[in-house]
UniProtKB/TrEMBL annotation:
This is Nucleoside-diphosphate-sugar epimerase. The keyword Metal-binding does not apply. It holds the Pfam family Epimerase. InterPro entries: Epimerase_deHydtase, NAD(P)-bd_dom_sf, NAD(P)_dehydrat-like. It comes from Actinacidiphila alni. One of its GO terms (molecular function) is oxidoreductase activity, acting on the CH-OH group of donors, NAD or NADP as acceptor.
Amino acid sequence: MPETVLVTGGSGYIGGWTVAELLSRGYRVRTTVRSRAKERAVTEAVSTVVDPAGRLDFAVADLTADAGWEAAVEGVDYVLHVAAPLGVTGGAGTGNNPDALVAPARDGALRVLRAATAAGVRRVVMTSAANAASPSSYATEGVTDETLWTDPDDPTLIPYRRAKTLAEMAAWDFMDTYRGPTEFTTVLPGAVFGPVLTADTGGSVGIVARMLSGAMPGVPRIGLEIVDVRDLVDLHLRAMTSPAAAGERFLGTGEFAWMADMARILREGLGDAGRRVPTRQLPDIAVRLAARFRDPALREITPALGRRNRHTTAKAESLLAWHRRPLPETLLTCATSLLTHQATPTPH
């Protein structure tokens, strides 16, 4: 019998691709949704990549509530906890209350771990964020690895970064006191781009969608470590099955690119389809003034202006033989996929 994997949040961008790839590799998959109404959308999205018939089922469970998690983990071999509670996506507009996002992120992770360890699953792989292994906001340069932990008490942290850090810390603290067969691993991605399964896609992909639409007057001086969603899913699956991955953190970032570099790749690679992509770089002062007086959502990105902090993925490459696609391939595949789906940016 094929092994069964529980994927939390199958309706999400990473979750949907995780479900599709697991099915493509022959696994049986169960995925959580917040309501039965989402089952059809997930099935249709996954069906654009692989036939899920007979090997995909659903469990209704919400990261903010206890109900449903015992049933969700029943009979599964592995758990891939890739879901984030509503609002904990890292995009602008996630809120300015430094504590509002912590409880759902942290408590959701602990609900998954309690259910998984009680059921004795083999391993849980949790999606954290590279932002949980980054220096303080005032640092503008440097390369870091998994041994660094973001300081959750840094007053300049945006709510998303603090929530992801505290959630992963709580998960490791829980596993440090656990005595049983379940193993634990975390994956820390950068900015996730690549093809979309549906038109209803937000998160990092919304940046490319806004560029294509011409909605951006220019690009801020912000850099991203871009990883292809397909490569990120592959890293999760390697972390799920490799004996060397037990008890480890793995950074899953990609090539660093300023948004101006992204714009250039899109303009040059898409031809006429990229004609609306902005090429003008906005002065930092203009972005800060807009954040202060016109668009409060921009306040979450201002700490990143001019920062070129990078992460090394040497650990994932050496222990798990992981590799990544070239940056232009990821960006152009993302853009053409968005154009095909006629996707629009998620409003913030």
